[in-house]
Structures are given as structure tokens and as C-alpha cells.
Amino acid sequence: MVSRLNPYLTFNGDARQAMEFYKEVFGGTLSLNTYGDFGQADAPNADKIMHGMLETSSGFTLMGADNPPGMEPPQGSAFSVSLSGDDDAELRGYWEKLSGSGSVSVPLEKQMWGDEFGMCTDRFGIPWMVNISTSES
Known about the structure:
There is one protein chain. The protein is an alpha/beta fold and about 140 residues long. It has two domains: about 10-65; about 80-130, 2-Layer Sandwich (Signal recognition particle alu RNA binding heterodimer, srp9/1), CATH 3.30.720. It contains two helices and eight strands, in the order E-H-E-E-E-E-H-E-E-E. The strands form two sheets. It has a four-stranded mixed beta sheet, covered by helices on one side. A four-stranded mixed beta sheet has the order 5-8-7-6, covered by helices on one side. Strand 3 and strand 4 (about 60-65) form a beta hairpin. The radius of gyration is 17 Å and the shape is elongated. The relative contact order is 0.18. This is VOC family protein.
């Protein structure tokens, strides 16, 4: 297996909804495992997500889970998930879905470096950056 780097997001009880939303946005195959699936069937968090993974045909992998009860939320929340490329229609589609039920901090528009770029936070509190490269003619 080739090494890879991908985001692993932590949620406060709504990982299932978030991961299902990302499947709607990006497509792909979603696998979700609950704490109950791993031997904690009687625990109060048995129905919460212990590990979720979305793998898409575009080569994206996004993982996520619910923060276990009693554990502090992870440190280092200064992050954004970045989507970039030159497929205008694909990236605009992602932007519309991610920002549609969230909030936009930087509208998706042409920037000083020539590309179209925008920043939003989706309805689950995850910050996204989208950069659509323009080809030089």
C-alpha cells in the first residue's frame, strides 16, 4: 500500500450526518462503524461513529468520527480542508453543496493570483477552501 495523507475530522455527536452529507457532496463509498460494532453495544455512545471513511472515484479520502464521551476535543483546530484543481464544473458543484447550508467567509470569485477562490464553513463547522485554477492562454 502506498502511503497517503488525508483529513480525519472529529465531530461532537453528528459524525454520521456529516459523513453522509460528504457522500452526497463528493459521491463515493462510505463505510461507518459505531462504537457498538466494536463491542460496546451497551455503552451510551453505542450508536455514535467510532470510525468513518469516505473514498471517492476522484481519489479523495475523508475520515471522521464522533469524539468519545469523556475525551477532550482534539487540539489544533486551526485547519481547513482544501479542494483545488482545474475542473470548473466539478469544483463549483462541491462549493455549492458545501456552502449552501453553511456560511461563506470569502465568496468564490477571481482573485489577484488569477484563480477563482472561496472559503466557507459547512453546516457541521468544517472550514473549506476551494481554488479553481485558470489556464493561461
